[in-house]
Each structure stands twice: as C-alpha cells, then as structure tokens.
Write a structure and sequence with these properties.
The complex is a heterodimer of chains A (104) and B (408). Chain A has 104 residues and is an alpha/beta fold. Chain A is built from 4 helices and 5 strands; from the N terminus they run βαβαβαββα. Chain B is of the alpha/beta class and 408 residues long. The chains are: A alpha/beta (104), B alpha/beta (408).
Chain lengths: 104, 408
C-alpha cells in the first residue's frame, strides 16, 4: 500500500487514473488498527486491479477534512480523482471487499 | 465427529472471551466467531478503570487484547468471520458464516453485544463520519480547537465528554433533564461539572444536524418552552444508550420487547444448549466485568449440559436393551419408595432391562424435555425412542403391562 499524506495525496489519488482505495486511519483509532491487517491483505489480493493507499489522519487533519472525512475508520474509493464511494462507521472488511468488487 | 465443536461462541467481546477461557480450560473444543474487530464495545473505550485488578491507566483495547491472548493460550480458536444464519434446535447446532463455512456445535454461546443507539434525528445518518460520531477515541483528534456537542448524560456520555475536552475547544452536553440532573454516576458528574471546557444545555434535545458535506450546525429544542436554537458546531457525539445486536435471533430464541435475549441465572436461553451472555441479554448492569461473569457461567453451564447429554446418551439412548428411566426427587418421599420398588422389579426381571434414575432436582432439563409433570414418573425407552410413560404411582403389574404392550 502507498502511504499518502498532504504532500503526495494530489499526485497519488486526485490525479491518478482508474480506481484508488484510500484507508483513512489514525494511531488513536482502535477499530482502524484492528481493520488494518485485513485491508493490507485485501490490497495484496487485488493487486493490479486498483491502487491502494493508506492515510494517517494524524498530521493530515486538514487534508482529511478537505476530503470530507471527519470520522474513522473511513475507506474511500476514488475513480479518476473523483470520490465515488465511501464506507464509514462500523467498517467490516467483508463490506469493503464487496464494494471493491462492485467498483473494479 | 471431530469437526463438531463443544462450544461455538458468537462474538469476541468480554463475554465471549471469558466463555472461551473457561470452555477451553475445561478442555472443551471451543471457537469464537467474530465479525471484524475483536473486543466488542470495550475495545473502543479509551479509559477503562473499573475492571477489578486493572486500575487507572488501563485502556479498553489493552484489556481486550489480554483477554484474547488468555483465551488463545488455553486453546480457544478465534476465527474472523460473520455468522449470517443459525439453526439452533436439535442436538447439533449449525452456524453458517458469510464466507460460507458451516460450523457444527453441541452448544452455542451468543455473545452478540450491543451497539450505540441511533436517535434517527434529521441529518444524523447523513453526517455519519462527517462530524456525527459514536466513538470518541476514534474521532476526537479531528476536533482539536473545534467545538463539539455530546448528546446524552449517562456514564458513557459524561465520561467520553471529558475525554473529548483533551482535544476540542468546547464540549457542550445536551441534557434532557432539568438543570443539575444527570443519569451518570456521581463521581463522573462531579468531575464533569468542575471541567471548565464543558458547557451544559439543560432540558433540551437535539432536533436536527445541518451542514454542507460536513456538520456545520445543530438545532436544539428546549422541551419545556419548545424554543428552537441553532448552534454553530463542528462535531456531534451521540451516547444515548445501546441496542442489542440480536436481529439474527428473531424467531429463534425468546427476546424481550427491546430485543434483548431472555436467560435464566445459568445464562440458558429458551433453546436447550444455547446460552446468551453480556450486553445482548436482559440484565441489570452492562459492564465488562458483568459480561466476563456471564461468560464464565455460560461456559460452566454448557460443560455440565454436555456431560449430562453424553451421560443420557450412553446410559439411555444408545442402549440396545429397553431402559426404564425413573424420575425422582429426594424431597418427595413417595418417589423414593417407588424407586426402591422399581429397583426390585428390575432385579427380578433380569438383565435384559435396564434402570436409570434421574434426580429431577438436579436435572430439570430432562424433566422439561420429556414433559414429566408428576414425581415419581417412569419412562420406558428403547433404542433411543420413548415408548411409554407412567406418571404418579405405579405397581409392578403396571410395569409388566407396559413391557408386554411394547412387545418385550
């Protein structure tokens, strides 16, 4: 997974062609950390079918808010730079995978 | 038959973990099935200071990780999968998961937990993750130097509000009661009242969450005057109680009107071999420590159930000779005499008929299963089938007659 932050988000996500999945998380978000290993497995499983990014919102608060993300965990999907879907709140990896399959 | 679990636990919060520890430590084949993150609601609580032996500084996630490690150290399997279908009646219970696996279980412990209640006010759902939150530890740091409100005034609401003051500029608590009245414990109430970052709005409820993409304001209604006030705000945290996650159980086990599972002191549900623990059941206090207690009780009750079922199979259902099962109770004198007569009759009749005595005081389940409504009663079984039933007093002639009728 690609680590994105305020410096490279535009390049890696907003200017990217095709499907990009961004995992918004932070070190103080326990559900995020619990979810993370399965998100990484998902990225491995679907390698080449979408671009997978990870965004630590700590230190990137303004960026998160600019992406209208104000709650964690959030998994957002972008296509050609536009946000097309988002899963937030109680995020189950099964739901993320289903959404990914729907969009890819 | 090794693919049948002694105990399948649905849910990996403190109730499920504790059941796992007790079950696997009793050498029962035990698995916990958990959708998503382990630890239940306790894993989203930053400060967890009231679990005995774990004082100040303990965090929910740490405690839950310790419980998971503890359960695994005794051999509990922990599988990350969501149960989507249940078949609970019958000796072997079937649990189907989202990944398509079917787990077979002799007993099931339901540790389904509860989730934050949503008030379904206008804008609440729309702005979820956009300023509306149910998890302070997850989202607090978005609100550094910003203003938030907390809806609710129970333990969770007031304690999480204090946590939020470490980040937010102001935390306004919307309380439905008159000024000064809070549902939370007194210790937390006093701390919160003394916190300069906490502001209070009394006798009020939230009417609407508004914004454009993100939360920008809320409308607060004074329930005494009916007056509506719009307040500029960046975040709204809801802590207005919980609802049980028992949707899956409807029509399977008895639930109360709110959807909580009804159990007895042994955590038994309305279905034999099925137990419920923790926040999903009807109970007085929903805390980590009471969930853990429920888990221990359920695992021990399940262990006893397994032993009794096995015993009944070996001594009654799987026996090739006809078996008389005599139900008696130490406090019913007539039943003691009747048992003595029955023993004599069996001794006289010879080895081709067996006798099993059931103390109804200790084994209520068999009493219910075979609808034994009088003590003493004697039930004749052959090859696992109930053939006839004598209730109340019975003479040697009655026993002979029943045997003849059954063709022995």
């Amino acid at each position: 997974m690609i680590e994105v932050n305020k410096n490279n988000f535009e390049e890696e996500v907003l200017k990217a062609d095709g499907l990009v999945m961004v995992d918004f998380w932070s070190p103080s978000c326990e559900p995020c950390k619990e979810l993370m290993p399965s998100v990484h497995q998902l990225a491995e499983k679907y390698k080449g079918q979408a671009k997978f990014c990870s965004l630590d919102t700590a230190g990137n608060r303004r960026l998160s808010i600019s992406q209208k993300v104000l709650g964690l965990p959030t998994i957002a999907f972008y296509r050609d730079g536009d946000k097309i879907a988002e899963i937030t709140g109680e995020v189950a990896i099964e739901d993320v995978e289903a959404k990914l399959n729907e969009l890819k | 038959m090794s693919d049948i679990y002694d105990i399948v636990i649905v849910g990996g919060g403190p109730g499920g973990m504790s059941a796992g520890i007790y079950g696997s430590r009793s050498r029962l084949k035990t698995v916990i099935l958990q959708k998503g993150r382990l630890g239940g609601q306790a894993a989203t609580t930053e400060e967890l200071e009231n679990y005995p032996g774990f004082g100040r500084g303990t965090t929910g996630p740490e405690l839950m990780q310790a419980m998971a490690d503890h359960a695994e150290s005794f051999g509990t399997e922990i599988v990350r999968d969501e149960v989507v279908d249940l078949s609970l009646n019958g000796d072997v219970k079937l649990l189907t998961t989202k990944s398509g696996q079917v787990y077979k279980a002799k007993t099931v412990i339901l540790a389904l937990g509860a989730e934050p209640r949503s008030l379904n006010i206008r804008g609440e759902n729309k702005f979820r993750g956009k300023g509306v939150s149910y998890c302070a530890t997850c989202d607090a740091d978005f609100f550094e130097e910003l203003d938030v409100i907390v809806v609710g005034n129970g333990d969770a609401a007031v304690e999480e509000a204090m946590y939020l003051t470490k980040f937010a500029e102001t935390v306004t608590i919307i309380v439905i009661h008159d000024e000064g009245i809070l549902d939370c414990n007194q210790a937390s109430a006093e701390k919160a009242m003394a916190n300069p970052k906490i502001k209070w709005v009394w006798s009020s409820v939230l009417q609407e969450v508004k914004g454009d993409g993100l939360v920008e304001s809320v409308v607060i209604k004074n329930i005494k005057t009916g007056e509506l006030t719009e307040m500029q705000i960046n975040g709204v945290f809801f802590f207005v109680g919980t609802v049980p996650k028992t949707e899956l159980l409807k029509g399977q086990v008895d639930l109360d009107e709110q959807g909580y599972v009804i159990t007895n002191e042994q955590m038994e549900t309305s279905v034999a071999g099925v137990y419920a623990v923790g926040d999903c059941r009807v109970k007085y206090l929903r805390q980590v420590v009471t969930a853990a207690s429920d888990g221990a009780i359920a695992a021990v009750a399940a262990d006893k159930y397994l032993a009794e079922e096995e015993d009944f199979k070996v001594r009654v259902l799987n026996v090739k000779e006809p078996v008389w099962v005599a139900f008696w109770a130490p406090q019913v004198e007539a039943s003691i005499n009747a048992i003595a007569d029955l023993e004599q009759w069996v001794a006289k009749t010879g080895t081709n008929v067996k006798l099993v005595k059931i103390d109804t005081y200790r084994n209520q389940r068999l009493v219910e299963r075979y609808a034994v409504d009088e003590i003493p009663s004697a039930l004749l079984f052959h090859k696992g089938e109930l053939i006839s039933k004598l209730s109340g007093s019975f003479s040697p002639e009655d026993l002979d007659n029943q045997m003849n009728l059954a063709g022995f």
